[in-house]
Each structure stands twice: as structure tokens, then as C-alpha cells.
Amino acid sequence: MPLAGKREQVFENVEMIVGVMTAQLHLQGIGSLKEKRSIVKSLTARLKSRFNISVAEVDHQDSKISSIVGIAVVSNDTGFIDQQFDAIITFMQRDGRFYLASVERETF
Prior knowledge:
Blueprint: E1 17-26, H1 33-51, E2 54-59, E3 66-75, H2 78-93, E4 99-107
């Protein structure tokens, strides 16, 4: 039901592409979950700030040596999403606090 005084806008032929990626991180030499969570929290904040993406730790929250990070990008251009994912992977590979074990990407 539209709000009084508001005009409803209809979007036709709008293309929205969603890219999702999961990245498995291996952390070595971590002594506590607190230390691991600090690294993951720092990484997710830096990724959000630099790439304007949605990112969260989605699995292995109770492991000291592993983390699964989920990332989502929305665009109207598949090429842009691919470029973003490539840049994000390079950014994570250059972070010396963990080893990027595996990455899975998908675009819808």
C-alpha cells in the first residue's frame, strides 16, 4: 500500500547482479580466539572500507586456526564484480596475518 502523498516508482528492465564469494583463512601462531577474532574483525572492517562491500565471518567462529569469510557485491556489471573480487583476493593475499587457503566465487 503506497504512503499518502508519495508516488510509487516502478523500475523496469533493471539488471541487478549479485556476486558472492567465500574465502577460507588459515591463521597460524594464534594463541586465543580473542586474538583470532581481532584479526578477522580488522580484516572485515578494512575490506568494507576499501571496497564498499558486505562482508562477515560466516563459519569456523570457534576455531583458533581457521575462518570462513563471506563477501557480497551488488552491481549491474558482471565485469565490475569480477574486478572487485580479483582486487579483494589480492588484498587478502598481501595481508601477512593469515594464509588464504581457498576461494569460491559465484555470480547470480
